Amino acid sequence: MSDIPFIVETTAATFAADVYERSKSVPVVVDFWAAWCQPCRRLGPLLEAAANEAGGQFVLVKADVDQLPEHAAAFRVEGIPAVYAVRNGEIVDSFVGLLTEPQLREWLQRIVPSEAELLAAEAQELEATDIAAAIAKYEAALALDRNQAGAQIGLARVLAATGKTDEARALIGKLEERGFLEPAGQKVKASLALASHAASSAAIEELRLRAASNPADTAAQLDLAQSLLAAGQYEEGLPLAVEIVRGGNKDHRERARLALLDAFTLLGDQAELTQRFRRELAMALY
Questions:
Q1: What's the pLDDT tens digit per position in 186-218?
Q2: 38: exposed, middle or buried (Cβ count in 10 Å: 0-12, 13-18, 19+)
Q3: Which of 37, 59, 151, 244 is catalytic?
Q4: Which helix (H) or strand (E) holds 161?
Q5: How high is the pLDDT of residue 242?
Q6: Taking a C-beta distance cutoff of 8 angstroms, is the pair 274, 268 a contact?
Q7: At CB < 8 A and 24+ separation, what contacts does 100-106 make?
Q8: Annotated catalytic, 40?
C-alpha cells in the first residue's frame, strides 16, 4: 500500500474493496501493469503524477498482472498497460497502451467528477441534516450544468420530501423525456406515485375498519393497500395489494399492480419482501 492515500497497490485480497467498493464514492482508475513491461514503466509515473495533482478526485489502483491474473482476465486484459475507469462498480472507460501526458490528461478529464457533480454529491450528504442547504447546493450544481442528472434527481427527491410534489414530478418528467430514468430517479418517481395515496394514521385506521366491514369491496381494499404502502407498512400492504390483483376488477387490479411495482422499486430488488411478493404477483397475474 502506498503512503499516499489516493494511490493504492492492490492485492487479490483487497481488489474488490480497492476497486468496486471505493468506486461507489470516488472514481477509480485501475492500472494493469507488470515490472517487465517497458511502456508500463513509462505510463505509471504519469498516472501517479496525475493522481497526486488531482488530490483525491480519483484513486489510482495499481494492479500487477503477474500477481493478479484472474482479476486481469475478469477485466479482459489482453495487453498492457491497460487502464480502466470504474465508477459505481462499473467500467465506464478504458485504454490500452502508452498515452502522452496531454492525451492522458484529456482522458482523465472525462472520468473525474465535474464541479456540478461535486456540488450534487455535497448536496446529497446534506439531505439528512439540512434540507435548505441541500436544495441550495443542488440549485448551484444545476446553474453550472442544467443537464446534470444527479442534481436534478436529488433536487426532485428533496422537493418531494418537503411537500413540493408538483415541482418534483416536473423534474422527473423532464428526465424521462430522454427515454430512460436512472435507478435513483425511478425511486423518486415511485415515492411520488405512492405519496399521492398518503394518509394519516387515523385515516388509515378508518380505511381498515371500512375494508374489514366489507371484504368484497375491492375499492376499499385498494384504498387501504395504497395508503399502507405509502406509509411504508409493507408487511400489511403488499399481501393486500396482491389479493386485489388476484380478485379485483380490471381497473383495481392494474392500480394494485402499479402500487406493488412502486413498492418493489423503493424496497430494492434484493429485499426479501420484494423477492417474495414478486413471486406472489406473478402467480396472481398468470
A1: 999 999 999 999 999 999 999 999 999 988 899
A2: exposed
A3: 37
A4: helix 149-161
A5: 96
A6: yes
A7: 101/46, 104/43, 104/46, 104/47, 104/50, 105/50
A8: yes
Structural contact between residues 90 and 34, judged by C-beta atoms closer than 8 angstroms: no
Q: Contact, 193 vs 262, CB < 8 A?
A: yes
The whole-model pTM stands at 0.71
Residue ranges of domains in the chain, CATH in brackets: 7-111 (3.40.30.10), 115-195 (1.25.40.10), 201-285 (1.25.40.10)
Catalytic residue among 8, 19, 40, 263: 40
By the 8 A CB rule, do 55 and 10 touch?
Answer: no
CB 256 within 8 Å of CB 241: yes
Render pLDDT for 98-156 as a digit per residue (tens, 0 to 9): 999 999 999 998 888 888 988 998 999 999 999 999 999 999 999 999 999 999 999 99
Residue 34 in this model has a pLDDT that exceeds 80: yes
Does residue 196 have an active-site annotation?
no
* Cβ atoms within 10 Å of 62's Cβ, excluding its own: 20
| SS3 state of residue 35 | coil
Of 181, 115, 131, residue with least CA distance to 152? 181
Residue from 123, 145, 118 nearest 135 by CA: 123
Helices (H) and strands (E) in the chain, counts: 14, 5
Torsion, Cα 174 176 180 182, to 10 degrees, reads 70
The pLDDT tens digits of the residues spanning 228-277 come to 999 999 999 999 999 999 987 899 999 999 999 999 999 999 999 999 99
Cβ atoms of residues 6 and 56 within 8 Å: yes
Q: Which of 127, 44, 39, 120 is nearest to 80 (CA)?
A: 39
